[in-house]
Batch of 2 targets.
Target 1
Amino acid sequence: MARVTVEDCVDKVPNRFELVLLAAHRARSIANGSAITIDPDNDKNPVVALREIAERTIPPEDMRESLIHSIQKNVEVDEPEAAAAPVLPHERRSPILGRDDQSSDTQVDMLTEEQLLRGLESMTPSEPSSNGGSGGPRERGR
C-alpha cells in the first residue's frame, strides 16, 4: 500500500490538530496492546493509526470518546437526586432513638466507667482456658 498522507485522513477528521491527537492516542493504544483493525504491513504504530483513520475501520467518534476518557481525571458518576426517592410520611416512620418524641424512646441504661469495669471483671474467668490458650506457666514446664 502507498504511504498514508494527511489528505487521506482530513476528509474523515477535518481538524488537523484533532487528527494528530486522535492518531497519537490510537498509536499509543496500539503500543499498549489494542487490536489492529487493518493489515500492519510492517508499518509503525503512528502509520497504522493513520491508515485506520483513512480506511474508517475505527470510527473517529469512538477514538474521540476514548481520548477524552483517557484524559479525564474525575469521571462523572450519575448519582440519584435527593428528591428522587419518596420520603415516608411522618406518621409511618418508626421512631429513632434520641431524635423523635422523648416519650416514645425506650429507657437507656446509663453506666459509669467504674460500673462497666466491675461488670467486665466479673465476666473474666479466673483460670486460663483449657483449650490450648496462651501456654501459661503450668504448660511451659511440661
Target 2
Amino acid sequence: MEELLCKAYDLLHRLGATANYKGFSYAAYAMALCAQRPELLLLVTKDLYPEVAKQYRTTWKAVERNIRTLVAMIWTRNPDLLGQIAGGPLEERPRSAEFLAITAADLRRGDG
C-alpha cells in the first residue's frame, strides 16, 4: 500500500495538484485503494468514500467534495496529461469516480 500511495502522490504532483488541498491526501489514498481493490469503484459513495473518511476522521461527503475540488483544479491546470493517462482526449472534466478509475488504472499499470 505504501508504494501505491507514493506513486499516487507522484501522479497527482505531475497532474499539477499540490498537497495544500485536503483532497490531495484523500484522492491519493482513494487511488491506492482502488488500484488494490478495483471493485471499490463500483460503489464509490457506499464503500470507497466512507473508507477514506474513516482513515482521515472526516465524513464521506467531505471526502467527495474535496476530491471533486481537486479534480476541477487538475482539469484547469493539466487536462492534456489527464487525457493522456486516460488513453485519449477527454471532452469534459471527469467526475470524481471517473478520475479515480483513470488514475487507479494508471497505478496498476505501473506508470504512475
